[in-house]
Amino acid sequence: MDIVLVAGLWLSGSVWDDVASALKALGHRPVPLTLPGQGDGSASATLDDQVAEVLAAVDSASERPMVVGHSAACTLAWLAADARPEQVAKVAMIGGFPSADGASYAGFFELKDGVMPFPGWSPFEGPDSADLDETARQRIEAAAIPVPEGVAKGVVRLADERRFDVPVVLVCPEFTPAQAREWIEAGEVPELAKAKHLDFVDIDSGHWPMVSKPIELARLLSAAAAA
């Protein structure tokens, strides 16, 4: 299966290198994306530009792909399902949840000079980063690309309720499936509360399993694609 891989904030498509290699060995065609403004040198990129990049990958797939979103990019994967509900075979979300219509895409951290730089490790102490050694932390921080304001402050627009028919698998790294179910049932994730086909998969990692456990993550994604 074609598997479109969309990284979260600050990360280019290279963060998927180890996962992509493992997916190829498992018989899939991984398509890791470097999003506009997150590796292509465009500081003026917008959320619409990033959505267009994901949709271009969906449209060029040789078959109906699974779209994988990590962290904030879970919203990008969900926007792809909204725009192409008949073309997206499944959405996998890793360590994040889709924003609702009208919400800001990623207003999480302070903007400086028109971009949102990586804030350092302080906001991610605890379960998010407990599995990362110093080498892994340095690798992530060295590769981090400031996110353009037009992306971070972009407004999410969802329009087609057929997105709720697209199967979703939620990969739970720094939180458990039980916690995720609790948040969804409490109304904190309204988009997933309406999903008609939602599965939960646990992975014993922090927020960046593509760095700390790429082989295990690839196997989970392969199993999700085959399910």
From TrEMBL:
Q: Entry's Pfam families?
A: Abhydrolase_6
Could you tell me which residue ranges the AB hydrolase-1 domain spans? 3-219
InterPro entries listed in its UniProt record: AB_hydrolase_1 (IPR000073), AB_hydrolase_fold (IPR029058)
* Entry annotated with the keyword Hydrolase: yes
GO terms, molecular function = hydrolase activity
For this UniProt record, give its keywords in alphabetical order, as a comma-separated list.
Hydrolase
Entry protein name = Alpha/beta hydrolase
What is the organism of origin for this protein? Answer: Micromonospora craterilacus
